[in-house]
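new request in #modeling-help
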Amino acid sequence: MNARRRLLAALLALLALPRRVLAQPSVNPAPGIDARTLSTPQGTLQAILKGTEMRRGRVRLELPAIGENGHSVPMTVRVDSPMSEADYVRRIDLVSEKNPVALMATFFLGPHMSRAEVESRVRLNGTQRVTALAQLSDGSFWFDAAEIVVNESACLDGG
Amino acid sequence: MTARIEVQHEVRRGDPIEVRIVIQHPMETGFRYDSLGRQTPRNVIHRFECRYGGVEVFRASMGAGIAANPYLKFFVRAERSGDIECRWVDQENASGYASARVTVNG
């Protein structure tokens, strides 16, 4: 009787938990939501690296030397990888030095991609250094950084 | 949400399939104010995924650092004929879908 009552109380307590606690998403739904850890470029890199070292090389980040308009800057990131089942790029993170939210995007790749290459257009809040950090399937981290002069910043009226 | 997807329709087995997509979306940063001084809430496409023949091949988690009308280009390895399917969702839970058929020869 007592055990049943305790079980009932436990079940009721579970129901009372906010739904958010029970349904934690498996991936960060939007980069930048946890502003405490993701607001600085260093914090962002540390959160991804989790103590692992990053080495320069294997990654190539291409940005124009001068971005006339920070609202839309062409960006290409390439990693030197065979993209086979045994050796592929797992993820590429783009980290900005001056944007209000440092983590701009994370790309998740895999052995079904024939090239470790992604092209997009980014927003940049001023002249700065952008870092592309890649994690390979063996867990190692590699990066490249590019300096860009931005003449007209994005997010002028906010940040 | 309208989108334009461009994929090579015929490709040899093992070759790269170039996938290019542009989605019409303001990617609101949350740092913009309207003429009355009210802050426009942040709303970006935060999740994008691409499947090829039903298997997830590429995924992107994006923030306000990606420009309005997000553009992505990536390369998938041609293995068999099938659909390249892209799905995405923004922070107001509006979602979109675009697909293209790929025929693999050889």
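bot summary: The longest strand of chain A covers residues 141-152.
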